[in-house]
Every structure is written in structure tokens, then in C-alpha cells.
Amino acid sequence: MFESDCNVYLVQELLSGGELFDRIIQKGNYTERDACVLISQVLQGLETIHKLQIIHRDIKPENLIFKDRKGYEVKLVDFGLSEFVKDPDQLYKRSGTPGYVAPEILKDLHYDSKADIFGAGVILYLLLTGCTPFFGEDTSEIVEKNQSAVVCWDFTELKLHISASAVELMKLMMHPDPKLRPTATEAIAHPWIASKISRDDIINLSPEKQQQTPKNIIQKNLAQLKMKDQQHLAQLDLKDPTCSPLMKASYRMLQNNPDYKQQESELVNQLSKSPTRYSNN
Fold it and tell me: N or C end of the chain: which has fewer CB within 10 A?
């Protein structure tokens, strides 16, 4: 972090691999081993923030970004809806994205970190099947199915074989009763994850091949869930005189632009022009 007399600059890690959502659209369903690598990272991230008493509240594939386009390392992003809480009774406000929200949130009940586990369970279902467990033609239908948390565990139509252990973990993570849902630590310790891959083996995984769910089913099934957040940087007015050169450079860097190296130099140039000091805070 860099501080000047007027501004605070955050230099963050570059994630160039795109969203998990887009990977699912392109690739289809994942093998159990590949899905295990991805979901174990999600659970490790949740384990970390939950120990810090932070609840993310918007776990979905759009908020999982790959470090690069070839690897399987993902990062949990977008903490815009997250909360730092010590007392779960404080949490009752609805938040999240339809199709991934824990039922207790949609029922306007108090909730805790187990709400994040439900969203991770939905992601695991997506990874293994290429389809959402709560498909609907519109938002109202999605919310209704999401709230009931009734999931189809018959994969005959998709022509997929998913192991009983994987199904067991998904059922636990998406259990309607949060008291019966595992914590992130407990989910990581589940035999399905333990038997597929070690917790440290997450970087250079070679993709395995598996019979795929037809892409037309995937695209139809996921189209209703693509709800991009168009706020924040999308609302940045580059012509605003209060918009600093660094903000403009940062904005352009975050766009999907092949001229990244040139933009990177622009950011470094702007930082060098501003009197800064390094902070350990």
C-alpha cells in the first residue's frame, strides 16, 4: 500500500485467468479430481475468512477468478457484500445472488458463516454437472427453488456418473438446515476431498478427460444466473476532474485489454510521479 498526502494507493495481485463461470460455460462439467482441486481452494479461502469472523455472503462462480488462463489456481474476490461479525444474531438482511443464496437468508432468518458453505455447495454441483441445481425461467422461479433447496440428484438425463461420496458432500453443503451443514474446515476434511487430492496440490494440475454434459444444456441452464454487477468501476467517469490519473490507469488495466503491458507502465509511471511512502498496515 502507498500513501500520499491526498490518496491511498493499493497495488493488488493481477488475476488474468477470467471467471470460473466462463470456464464452466466453455469447458462444461469437470472431472471429480479437477472439481476437487477447485472447491478445496474455495473452502480453504472460506476457512480463512471465517476464522477472521468475516462472512462473504456472495459465493458464486463470478466471484472466483483464475490466476492465469492455463492453471487451476483460483482466488475469492468481491467482498462488497461481506460482513465482519461476532454475533450471528446481527445478520438477517438479505444478500447474495439468486441460485446461490442459503435458504435461511431467503426466509429472512438469522444466519452465519454456514451461508457461505451453501453457496460453495452450489458451485461444487455446477462443477460436477455443468448445471445449476436451481434452474428457472426467471428470477422468481430461481428464488422459489433456491429457497426450497430441493435438488435433483438423478444425473441420468445428463449421462453422468458422480460418486456417492461426492454426492454426499454436496448434500451436506447444500443442506436446508444450516445446523447440519459442515463448516469449511469440516468440508475440507470430508473423505471425498481427502481421497482426491492433497490440500497443497492446487497449482499445476493437468486437466483430466470425462464425458461431458451437452453444452446446449449447460448454456441454457446457466444463462439465467449470469447477473453481472455493473456498479463500482463500471460507473467510473474518466472525464470527471476528480478522477485521478492513477484511477484512470487502474480502470483501463482492469479491462480485458491485450495492451496490458503498456497500461502497466502507465500505472507505474503515475505512481512514480506521486510522493509516496510504504505502509505495513
Answer: C
